[in-house]
Design goal:
73 residues; alpha+beta; 3-stranded antiparallel β-sheet; 3 helices; 37% helix
Length: 73
């Protein structure tokens, strides 16, 4: 199992974009991301450092593994 890196919210948005997610809008300091065929939306906080639990839950909601997400970084 790959170790979950400590990254910023902006880097997470870029990685999810490479995985096919599209930033549809922004509310306050969160990027709302959607993907065709998924009913789930991702609300990625644009913080300087994302908490590991938050990032892990976003990866799980996107139906990715940690290894796949690290590959998109």
């Amino acid at each position: 199992m790959a170790k979950l890196p400590v990254i910023s919210g902006l880097k997470a948005v870029k990685a999810f974009s490479k995985a096919g997610w599209v930033a549809s809008r922004q509310t306050s300091n969160h990027a709302i991301m959607e993907k065709v065929g998924y009913t789930v939306t991702l609300s990625v906080p644009k913080h300087k450092v994302l908490k590991r639990g938050t990032l892990r839950n976003l990866i799980k909601d996107a139906e990715l593994t940690v290894e796949e997400f690290v590959k998109w970084l």
